[in-house]
Amino acid sequence: MKYKAEVNVMPLKALLDPQGKAVEARLHNMGVKDVRNVRIGKHITLEVEASDEKKAAAIVEKACKDLLHNPIMESYEYKIEKA
Amino acid sequence: MKYKAEVNVMPLKALLDPQGKAVEARLHNMGVKDVRNVRIGKHITLEVEASDEKKAAAIVEKACKDLLHNPIMESYEYKIEKA
């Protein structure tokens, strides 16, 4: 079965996110004032071939743990659906 | 009212995504073989202060159009919910 996974990797809440701060300041300068707490991370989409959803989740989990996120400064979440 | 928006900015489907290709190759080298079509973009979360959801959407739309995405190589999508 083919599954489609969407992974979000975000800077940990406890950390300052300078990229987000820069975008927020720029938005305010552009006149978009009512925006706060901008945080910027990565959005990763991938296709997984697996016999069931649990196995697909295990593959995505391994990819997140071992490659996609840096545990010192990022957290991740994902969702999986049938492609 | 306070709304929370989640924006995904992704490389256009028609374009090669070298970052995604690099991650895919690395996953294959690591033994995670059943993964294909990895694409990497940005995930942006922000809080919007607006009187209703339609106005919040207009603010997010403007932020996406004018700052967050590069129309030549990226597309965007977002969803908004009450914070």
Detailed description of the structure:
- The structure is a homodimer of 83-residue chains.
- In chain A, 34% of the residues lie in helices and 41% in strands.
- Chain A is an alpha+beta fold and 83 residues long.
- The first copy, chain A, has a single domain, classed as 2-Layer Sandwich (Mth169, Chain: A).
- Chain A is elongated, with a radius of gyration of 16 Å.
Based on CA atoms alone, the radius of gyration of chain A comes out at 16 Å
The neighbouring-strand order within the major sheet of chain A is: 2-1-3
Number of helices of chain A: 2
What count of domains describes the coordinates of chain A?
1
Q: Please tell me the CATH architecture of chain A by its name.
A: 2-Layer Sandwich
How would you spell out the order of helices and strands of chain A? EHEHE
Question: How far is the N terminus from the C terminus of chain A?
Answer: 8 Å
| β-sheet strand percentage of chain A | 35-45%
Gross morphology of chain A is elongated
Assembly state here? homodimer
Largest interface: A-B, 33 and 33 residues
Regions of chain A with pLDDT < 50 over 5+ consecutive residues?
none
The CATH homologous superfamily of chain A is termed Phosphoribosylformylglycinamidine synthase subunit PurS
Q: Give the number of DSSP strands of chain A.
A: 3
CATH topology tier name of chain A: Mth169, Chain: A
